[in-house]
Amino acid sequence: MHIQQFENHPNRHPNFRGCNNSISRHTLMLIRTHCTPMYTINMHIFFKYSLIEELKNIIDLLTHKNKYANLRSVIYPSLLKFITSSKIQKRRIVQIQKVWEKIEPQFGDFLFKQDLYLEVSKIVCYVHTFGCEGWFDIDKNEIHVRTEESSLKNTIDSIMHETIHLPTYTSEATYKEREDLVEKYMQMKQIQELLVI
Ligand SMILES: [Zn+2]
Fold first, then answer.
1. Which of 21, 107, 125, 130 has the fewest Cβ atoms nearer than 10 Å?
2. For residue range 41-56, what is the model confidence (pLDDT) as tens digits?
3. 162 Cα–ligand 1 center, Å
4. What is the distance in A from the centroid of ligand 1 to the CA of 135?
């Protein structure tokens, strides 16, 4: 089952695999208790631009307009931007990586100390030119952020926001509850300090 959640879209996936986290969380607690706590601290985000992912995004934008109608910030596809996006995004990835590599160890440490365990420590973040500010795919442990018309600081904010969705996701929570929970973490001092870019 392919599961994604788009920002601001209410309860798109009510049948998410429930409390699947219970086993991995328990296992991870054991790891944390008995082993060197390296799991989340060693997290790494790989930034990618994928034409296929962008095309999937564009098709979704064009075929599910209602879904995006209430989102606060959406960029719809344009041919000109699409033609140039590969080159621009590759340049942006370099800029993002430069900032992110300084933040990542502290962010991983933050997740670990908050008991936010990622199912996989290597996460792919696809950068996009179109769409809403960001979304995540809980099944694939992927995140997506739109860099177009977004400052570097805002993009970094989105990367952290979407990443925190992964370990905090539960189908039992409403969309608002999920967002409120992520925002609670985002407002914490340690995160806000990382956002002084
Ligand atoms: Zn969110």
1. 21
2. 689 999 999 999 999 9
3. 6
4. 7
Query: Is residue 58 in some structural domain?
Result: yes
Q: Which residues surround ligand 1, an ion (CB under 5 A)?
A: 7, 179
In a domain, 130, yes or no: yes
DSSP classification of residue 106: H
Do the domain assignments include residue 27? no
Q: Which residues pair with 127 in a beta bridge?
A: 145
Tens of pLDDT, residue by residue over 145-156, are 999 999 999 999
4: in domain: no
Domain span holding position 151: 37-194
Those residues with Cβ within 8 angstroms of residue 193's Cβ, 6 or more apart along the chain or in another chain: none
Ligand 1 mean position to 161 CA, how many Å? 6
Four-point Cα dihedral 39, 41, 42, 46, nearest 10? 120
Number of domains in the chain: 1
